[in-house]
Amino acid sequence: MPSGCRNVCGVNQKTIQPAAARATRPLPTLEDLARAAGVSRSTASRAINGGSRVSPEAQAAVDAAILELGYTPNRAARTLVTRRAGSVALVIPEPDARVMMDPYFAAVVTGVNQALRDTDLQLVLLMSRTGDDSSRTLRYLGGGHVDGAIVVSHHRSDDWVETLGSTGVPTVFIGRPWDRKSELPFVDVDNFEGGRLAARHLAGLGRTHLGTVAGPSDMTAAVDRLEGWRQGLKEAGLPPGPVAYGDFTTAGGADAAKSLLARSPELDGVFAASDLMALGVVDLVRSMKRRVPEDIAVVGFDNRAILAANGLGLTTVAHPMTDMAAAAAQLLIGAIGNPGQQLEPVIYPAELVVRGSTAG
Amino acid sequence: MPSGCRNVCGVNQKTIQPAAARATRPLPTLEDLARAAGVSRSTASRAINGGSRVSPEAQAAVDAAILELGYTPNRAARTLVTRRAGSVALVIPEPDARVMMDPYFAAVVTGVNQALRDTDLQLVLLMSRTGDDSSRTLRYLGGGHVDGAIVVSHHRSDDWVETLGSTGVPTVFIGRPWDRKSELPFVDVDNFEGGRLAARHLAGLGRTHLGTVAGPSDMTAAVDRLEGWRQGLKEAGLPPGPVAYGDFTTAGGADAAKSLLARSPELDGVFAASDLMALGVVDLVRSMKRRVPEDIAVVGFDNRAILAANGLGLTTVAHPMTDMAAAAAQLLIGAIGNPGQQLEPVIYPAELVVRGSTAG
DNA sequence: TTCCCGGATGGGAGCGCTCCCACCATCCGA
DNA sequence: TCGGATGGTGGGAGCGCTCCCATCCGGGAA
Predict the structure, then answer these.
(1) Domains of chain B with bracketed CATH
(2) What are A287-339's pLDDT values in tens digits?
(3) Cβ-based neighbours of A58, under 8 Å, separated by 6 or more
(4) C-alpha separations of A218 from A94, A106, A224, A245 in Å
(5) Strand D nucleotides within 7 Å of a protein CB
(6) Given A72, A82, A144, which is nearest B143 (Cβ)?
(7) Facing residue for A80 by CB, picked from B48, B80, B126
């Protein structure tokens, strides 16, 4: 395979053998269907696509023929003429597999799939891996291969995300994207309010020495939660308190808590920007022979069902990821149907779920 | 939308507006490309598809034009004539979202994507949800919409899985499918040997009262691990020992361990069929004021990196899920290239990773 | 009766691509 | 000198579908 255009998306296809004519008998075409039903191609087509102007008899004949022949419309042919790909991309702009390991991702896939259920849209997974791949991804998205895209914008967006808007491909973000100006539509939970609620809750318990384990500062969610937290402290008349940064993992949460307690041994309340980190905080606190919640109350973020059950009930901020992903997909479906229309961001209200880790 | 054919896959497309002619200028076609390069459509096509019989000048001209025009081949048109969809399905025959939450799934997606990286194949996610959906899924797979399928066969397969073989769509399973006769190709770790290794390892430490927390008996992996475990015990001259069943989760592992210890308080070694369950076992053992590994040695299965780090080093059987998924994808790619050829199962050797939970 | 109108139908064109085949050079061995 | 390989090229057909248009048929108004 020669020269020059290696990065051009899809141009160089890896030469897979011409697929020695799969031994199966050919699939029935619309023509076959029409013949079996005793109608014309056009009528069959109309019957299939929501039958306006089709007599009941013709409709019935076509329906029967579909069942008899096991007919499935050829998606490629349909796409070719309608210019609708019949699929949406889930873009994961993460160079490595880290995001994947995050159950957040699983929730997103579940939610999106849920919304796509009674659509004929298929979900195509697009992971942009190393650097130059982003242009390839962009090209793919812009090349009419999908009808829309959902971007899980976990990290500070690479430049290409902004470019996405100009390709004309309907796009919805899950999690507020960094680029605020361009008004890209997104779905998110009210991270700011979540942080604020955590602060108010801890303050309301009479805790006065509050610290937080924030998430990575290249994620909007982390930044917003931290801002809200600070705002909440201010409103409660409390000092800003110490901040340590974690990477949303349990281990990271424990490390951050360690540094937090080293700096401020008098701490009696901690807000961790994710449940996993909160778990790390709890572990560390206990390993230092201090009790949760008696000595240190802990609030998490995400309300992940699995974690709530581990003996310790974790007070946390609800983050209905699956629902949000479904909403994003819904939004996208709407955008595909009526292009041009300006989409409003959807922001889920933050809601505190009080459990044992702050009881008392 | 009338009558009769509601379950026919893709036949009734939800009527999304005819997409008011997306405001973008039309994408360049091969014709445009050829004109820009000063060659014929045929030559341009040849240049794009791995340029045999194309002069260097023509090739260069086409390459330049591709860059200039930002040309991307229209996948639908290509598919229509080549009968290659340019995508493979990852089938998750799970009615609910449970599998998704399993990091196993994330590993699979990562691995598959890795293998697909330098192919022009896209990954399409297919979750068969409720009952009648399975026929819909089957129809989709058989309808030429994808070139192949990877089935994550976590549970005892529904009938439709066997039918898959007869559709002529190349299929590879991850995890041995139940249906042994049909000789479906699969990739798996040597579960039997893994169980056996665990037994031998514990026996080798001088532990004589051994029990196991097995996985759900509707999964081949669980069954095979249990069989291997029993074989290992027999070879070591030990009695079969108690068995409790868990659901591969931490909580399930703890529950099972509780019943195990209730029945056999003298236990000094436990093999749990997954790391998560092993973690539950460790938790429970400790909560009963017994020590790991001094009082009870614990062996897990999966070697999940995240868990290895939680203070306790868990002895476990390696289970390279990502690699296995990549291998499955590789196998599938091969099968797509040369249909007809009989594929051999790929079985990764089991390997024991010894850590603190059995040290001593 | 004649005319028209609207619902139902069938045929043709064409979406963008790959493949087959015909064509034209050029170069070689006879 | 001429035949037949050979390498490069271009045009035509056609993949299976949807859309546009022309056609047809029946019933109510003129």
Answers:
(1) 24-73 (1.10.260.40), 87-188+324-348 (3.40.50.2300), 191-319+352-358 (3.40.50.2300)
(2) 899 998 999 999 999 998 665 445 678 999 999 999 999 999 999 999 998 87
(3) A37, A39, A43, A47
(4) 13, 21, 11, 11
(5) 7-12, 14-20
(6) A72
(7) B80
